[in-house]
Design brief:
Rossmann fold, two-stranded antiparallel sheet, transferase, SAM-dependent_MTases_sf, single chain, methyltransferase, Methyltransferase type 11 domain-containing protein, 26% helix, methyltransferase activity
């Protein structure tokens, strides 16, 4: 677990001078259960992070992706095999591929739906050969030949994919037999502190809640505000294991980790989320959060509020929020590592048939 203290030293807390951009949803939510996110809006948000300042704002907030890329590399190096070519899916400027060495991988193909992020750092040095492809991660097989890759990696990108089972199937199709898939995505408890603070503030100030923080999966329902949007289920390791199995991967290993970051206040956190390109892109989302609600959410986040419930035993404290003793607020990024998934091949080890054992465990134990 890593703890970061980040941000410029002279940042002022408070909402008065900040403007958090919301990109309007442009169509009615469809009935297809996989259409959870507005992919066009997500691409706009990612492109916006590198516009106007040559990508400097985007580089400042690379700390989460760089940390997760380092942890992914540790897992990658544990695999005692060298690779000729691999895909870096949703690579952005190449957080993971920048760490690779020639004796492990000969060539890495960087793929991202954001042309701006893909070419954000044109002068970066890579030890491996690099090819950049501008393409949609949801439609991998439209530009990658089947069974052409020895490995596919994805560092913090798949949480914005609508059809995650379909995307995993395409990854398996792109792999050669006995090819490797290694991925990391945000889990359902990511930014739970921000999510709960916004929900409590909305209930208090507006009498209902709407989703503002991803990643999630879901289906279309009506919100408490009467808007048609999406009911969400948080992803966990069991869900990811089931999805990998359904996609046809074998010898699975899935684990979970956290990166905790300390921010001066909720406002700096929201600013960094926007500069990461991780703003809300849920179909049917509310486009505006009232200023009064945001101020209340910040106070809740800081721990200025304590919530109580009336029970049979009297008044009971049920929730005290998240502020640290030093005045900062924590933000948790939960990472689910699809640590190893292999495309089936005849050479892979397989379990023996049931009843084929020749030694009774009672005799051994």
């Amino acid at each position: 677990m890593a703890l970061f203290r980040i941000g410029p030293p002279q940042r002022n807390s408070g909402p008065q001078w900040r403007r958090f951009l919301a990109t309007a949803s442009q169509f009615t939510p469809p009935t297809n259960p996989y259409k959870v996110f507005d992919r066009n809006v997500k691409q706009i948000q990612k492109d916006r992070t590198v516009r106007g300042d040559a990508g400097e704002r985007s580089r400042v907030v690379d700390y989460v992706r760089d940390e997760v890329a380092d942890r992914m590399l540790e897992r990658f190096l544990d695999i005692k095999r060298n690779f000729g070519t691999m895909l870096d899916l949703g690579a952005g400027p190449g957080h993971f591929s920048k760490l690779l060495e020639k004796d492990k991988v000969q060539k890495s193909i960087l793929i991202d739906s954001s042309l701006g992020l893909l070419h954000r750092d044109p002068d970066s040095e890579f030890e491996v050969d690099i090819e950049r492809i501008h393409g949609d991660e949801e439609n991998l097989m439209t530009f990658i030949p089947p069974e052409s890759q020895e490995a596919v990696v994805s560092c913090l990108n798949l949480h914005w994919v609508n059809d995650l089972p379909g995307a995993l199937v395409q990854i398996r199709q792109a792999l050669k037999p006995d090819g490797l898939f290694l991925g990391a995505m945000f889990g359902g408890d990511t930014l739970f502190e921000l999510r709960t603070s916004l929900q409590l503030a909305e209930v208090e100030r507006e009498g209902g809640i709407s989703p503002h923080v991803s990643p999630m999966t879901g289906k279309n329902v009506h919100s408490t505000h009467g808007m048609r949007l999406t009911k969400f289920t948080l992803l966990d390791t069991r869900d990811v294991s089931n999805l990998l199995g359904r996609a046809g991967f074998t010898l699975l290993t899935v684990d979970i980790d956290e990166v905790k970051v300390a921010y001066p206040s909720m406002w700096e956190l929201m600013e960094d989320i926007q500069n990461m390109g991780e703003s809300n892109a849920i179909i049917g989302r509310r486009n505006v959060i009232q200023r009064d609600t945001l101020v209340a959410a910040s106070a809740i986040y800081n721990g200025d509020y304590v919530y109580y419930a009336v029970t049979w035993f009297g008044l009971t404290q049920v929730l005290e929020m998240h502020g640290n003793e030093d005045g900062t607020v924590p933000a948790t990024f939960q990472i689910i590592y699809m640590q190893i998934g292999w495309k089936p091949a005849p050479s892979q080890p397989k379990p023996l048939e049931r009843g084929s054992g020749k030694v009774n465990l009672k005799e051994v134990l």
